[in-house]
Amino acid sequence: MKAVFIGGGALRHLAILRTAMGTPGLFDKGQIILCDLNLPRAKAMAAVAAQTPEARQCGCKITATDQFTPAIDGADVVSVVLMGGNRLTHEQGNDLSVRAGFLGSDNLSLNGAFLAMKTAPFLMQLARQMERRCPEAWLLNFANPVGPLSAMVNAHTRVKALGVCAGYTNHRWDLSRILSGQDHGEADVQVRVAGVNHLSFIVEGTYRSEDLFVLLKKKLKPDWQPMKLLGHAPVRQRQMRYGLEKMAEAFRSLGVVIFSTEPDGLGHLFHDEAITAAKAALKIPAAKRAEANKRNAQDADERFADWANQTLDEAFWKQPPDPLFAPQESIFTELLAGIGGVRPAAVVASHLNRGAVAGLPDKLSLEYSMIVHKRTMRPETGLFIPPTVFGLTASLAQHQTLLADAMATQDPHVLAQALLCYPVGAYSQNLQKLVKALMKLQQAELPLALRKATNWMR
Questions:
Q1: Which of 2, 9, 10, 7 shows the shortest CA–CA distance to 60?
Q2: Are 268 and 424 in contact (CB under 8 A)?
Q3: What is the DSSP letter of 443?
Q4: What is the DSSP letter of 326?
Q5: Beta bridge partners of 79
């Protein structure tokens, strides 16, 4: 198998590569290319990955480059992990959104739509090159927002794309904490899921071979309280506890089981609470947040580069100094095993509907359960959107589908329609005022044609 990882210097890749190379038969005598505009970063990752026990055992060739075009020749899979645009303006866009009473995030929000517009030109360029150089390859897109970006590629090119999210295993942890009181990911969970990325719903499932909905009904009585979460940073503890509380509330009030408790997804079900919390967090300026993120990334890269200049022996790998060094199951490794033909991959990912989810148009951008094996993908059967969240989900999906079309065609009128129909405050003057402010803030990073979208707004 030949796999190309764009944004390949990202530190998350070490765990992915170790797990993938440790999968028997997947990368035996194969090839991995790490592509990154920051070439020293990619070279450091390649140097460390090449010294892992898994790489030594499978004999996989690992190289680094800053040129993706020749790298993808004959690839079986191309993965994209990157953030488009400037982090500072993105953080400032989140602040503008919150002050206007809207959610701000890198995914399911109006500011997330602007992030998609910044990333889209590169992703379309990559897809066009894939049509020529590796037309049968899968494109695995981790760049947020994954829903509209993967829909853009699937609807407007011949490339097969899946939008993938690290939250793919969140439900295993949430359900374990609720049903067993254990702070670990439960392996014996089988679910079928439908929705949009960051706001999908489990429509059928089992936990340790018992009906999930029956178990939750017994457990989530009005006096239920989340377990104590120990061994986590205080901020992380509060986030996890809030997610469990909202998961329970959504089940009791709406009859739905949230698949992945992501803040911006939850914010669409508990909007007033989310905005109140977000406004309280505005005390940290956007510039300070962006600078802290940049500094933390640089520090992590420098620490990692030190390891790349050392000989890492067997003793090192038995007790690595950082969790990033340990093998770790993820949606990437599961999909790589499926695409490589090792085993069918049962995953939840973003794609066009194409008949997968009942009652919604074929071209809609959705996230749902599917089986990926070699060059084929088939949806799980019996998928639907629960009635209490059908309207919200369908509206979010339509917003993201129109956004995908606008990005592919560079049509500012379609973009205006996509932004106007965002379902929180749809068509309102408040929404239009925010869109204009976001456009003014970020227009230098956007394709020229799309900057004209506000011509169709009041």
A1: 2
A2: yes
A3: G
A4: S
A5: 5, 140
Q: The tokens of 195 are what?
A: 């929705």
* Helix 412-420 vs helix 429-442: crossing angle, to nearest 10: 130
- Bridge partners for 160 per DSSP: 138
What are the E-state strand segments in 256-364?
257-258, 345-352
Sign of CA dihedral 28, 30, 34, 40: positive
Nearest CA to 112 among 83, 140, 141, 139? 83
| Angle CA 130–83–5, to nearest 5 | 40
- The dihedral built from the CA positions of residue 107, 422, 244 and 162, taken in this order, carries a sign that is negative
Rounded Cα–Cα distance for residues 315 and 258 (Å): 42
- Separation between Cα atoms, residue 393 and residue 364, nearest integer Å: 11
Mean pLDDT per block of 10 residues along the chain (458 residues) reads: 97 95 95 97 96 95 97 98 94 97 97 98 98 98 98 98 95 97 94 98 98 98 92 90 97 98 97 96 91 91 91 89 85 96 97 98 98 98 98 98 98 98 97 98 97 96
C-alpha torsion angle, residues 157, 161, 165, 171 (rounded to 10) = 130
Q: Which residues does residue 61 pair with via DSSP β-bridges, in sequence order?
A: 31
Handedness of CA 124, 125, 128, 134 (dihedral sign): negative
Name residue 273's amino acid: E
pLDDT score of 329:
83
Using DSSP's 3-state secondary structure scheme, residue 435 falls into: helix
How far apart CA 258 and CA 175 sit, in angstroms, is 10
Q: What predicted TM-score, i.e. pTM, was given to this entire model?
A: 0.96
